Structures are given as C-alpha cells and as structure tokens.
Amino acid sequence: MKKKTFVKAAGTALMAAALVFPQAGSFAPPSQAAAETLETQGFISYAELQKKLRQLEQTSGGKNSVDVAGSTNQGREIYTARVGTGDKVLLVQSEIHGNEKTGTVALLNILQKIGSSNSEAAKKIREEMTIVAIPMMNADASELDRRGNDMSWSEVTEQYPQLSSATPSWNYYTRVLQGDDYAANPGFDVNRDFHPDLDYVANAADFPGASNKPGWYITPEAQTVRDVYKDLMAEFGKVDVFMDMHHQGFPYVGDTGEIATMSISAQFVPDPATPEGDKYAQYANGYDYDFSRQLNVAVYDALQAKGDSVFTNISLYQQDLDLPGTALGSFALNGSGTVLFEVKGQTQNFGQKQKGMLVKTVETGLMGVINGVTDGTVYSLDPEKYEEIPESTY
C-alpha cells in the first residue's frame, strides 16, 4: 500500500504541510449545525486534526510518525499516527461513525504523551510496542457530524460494475435517520463493510447481506483500514490487539440503576470452535477469545483503580453477537485480541466538562491495555473475570 508521510516527504514541516494538506475550500464545509456542535462541544474537526497531527510529529522529535493511509469517498485523507518500535502491535481507530468523537481526542492525547515523554514508562512502551492509531477513520461523516459516510450506491457500482444488478446493501442509508437526511445525501454504515476474508472482492450474490453476515469492502474507508491491518500483518506477522472507539445510548450497569459511563466488550462473533460458530471454522486456529477477555479485564481494572467515581460505572456491552461485518468481528477472526469502547451518549449530549470526563475515561481504559501489554501482566489475567463484569441493561 502506497503511503505518504507528513514530514519526511519534504525538507521542512511547512513544505510537507503544503504537500499533504488540501487548500482551504477544497471540500464542502460541514452544515452550520454540525459546525456549531463541534465548536460548542470542543471536539476536533478535520482541519484541527491535521494541525494536531503535524504538531505530534514536531513535538515528539519524530517518535510519532504520521502517514496518509488512504482517502475517504469525498477525498479527505485518512491518517495513521504511529509510535513505538516494539513487536507487540496495537491498532486502534476512532470515528468509524462520524458523530462518535471522544476517542479521537483521547488518542491524540495518548500519542502525545507516549511520543514526547522521556519517562522510563514511556520509553518502555515505545520499546515493547508499536501503536498505530487511525484517529478519524470516517472524516466525511465527522465533518457532517453523522454516523454514515458520504457515498451513493451509484458510486459503488461505478467502482464495482459487477454490482450493477445487485440490490443495495442493507447498511445503505437513504432516509432520515437520527435527524440526518440521508435521502438528500446517502451513505453507508462503514462499520458493517468488513469481511474476515481480507482479500474478498465484492460479489453481487452476497447482496444485500444482513447484520449477521460479512460485509464487502465497498467503501474506501473500510478498504483503508483493511489495508492498514494487512500491512501490519505483513510487517509483524500479527496484529496483537485491535481496539475500536464508539459511543452508545444510556444503558445501566446491571441492576445498579447507575448509567454506564462506558461499556466494553470482547465478543463480536461466536467462537469458531463451537457449533454456533461452525461457519467460521476456517478461522478457528487464530481466534483467541480468552485473550480478548483478558484485554477487557485490563480495561476494567484500570478504570476501577480510579476509586469510587464515574470511572467505576463500566458495563459489558451486549453479548452473544454475530457481527462478522464489523471491523472488530473480522479482525478477531484473523487472530487479534479485540476491545470495544462504547462511551455513553453522543457528541451532542454533552458540554466541555462532561466531554473532558469521558475523554479521560477512554484514555484510562486505553492505557490499561497499553500498560498491560507492555509489561506482560495482561497475559496472566484470569479471562473468567470478564464474566463478572455487570452487563448493560436498558
């Protein structure tokens, strides 16, 4: 996969910025409502992301490297930020749904700390791990402040003529949904466009599909993440951990009556070694549900260590899922330990103070995984402790 580096491609950061970043006005601006939401909630726009990624490289002295991994359907570049040189690989992404933004802020904060700190802890992380972050995977949706990307079915069939007679996929939005008018500006739920066969090519016989069936890699955003994943597998032999940052509604923590600050999960497809997961039998040798559970326990323990506070309000997201079309489901079947973060609410629900607390929750959970993988303690955690985490109730 051809990549374009932010700074190394040119002699100076200024030259690199001119090469990499589009000129102002290259894209249609977000709606007024979306722009006001970003401004009042303190979340990061696409232009601000570019600025912060450039700063990451500069302030870390190159320990953070930023690359262009691909482009959205509307031509916005999809960036990866990488820190560390170790052989334990963590791939983490945020904003596969463009109105779920807390993870983006948290990722940038963590990259800054790990890349710029000279502490022994930061040095150890950089020595043991290679962390690759995709902080704004679905930039078109982020600018529109909505869930789905910005792509029509006709654009799909233009790229894949073999689909011209197919029924549009089930995850194609063409109506008003969650207040967003997809009828005027259609798009896809990109987090249903993944397939455990990383070399899969769209086939008309597989459409329109369903939520419990694989996706198709028809969106450039899903293709980009797939390619990043494949490149890391080629480089390291394995992507040890994959984490995905999301938002949810307002479930309760078990029967406590407390609203969950965040829900987590390790389970996205049935175990290929069980009768329920027999259709995934070809992936049985790589699938490691126990490791995914250990990673989630590391998240839970890190948050509980904060004491009696909102950080303890953690629940398990819905279990017994069969979602091979999600990035989490597809990559779990390919051998990665997986962790889902579902922060409460949506971006429009909160102001600056609440947002800051939620960002800190995500940072704490992420660092629980990073520290546990770095020092090896995650591998000794009891995976059965995962089953003791209270499930979400509604």
Automatic annotation (TrEMBL):
GO process terms (BP): proteolysis
Residues annotated as domain Peptidase M14: 42-394
Family that this chain belongs to: Belongs to the peptidase M14 family.
Pfam families: Peptidase_M14
Name listed for the protein in its UniProt record: Peptidase M14
Active site residues per record: E363
UniProt keyword annotations, A-Z: Hydrolase, Metalloprotease, Protease, Signal, Zinc
Entry cofactors: Zn(2+)
Signal sequence region: 1-33
PROSITE patterns in the cross-refs: PEPTIDASE_M14
Organism, scientific name: Metabacillus indicus
Cellular-component GO terms for this entry: extracellular space
InterPro entries: Peptidase_M14
UniProt key word Transferase: no
Any GO MF annotation of the entry: zinc ion binding
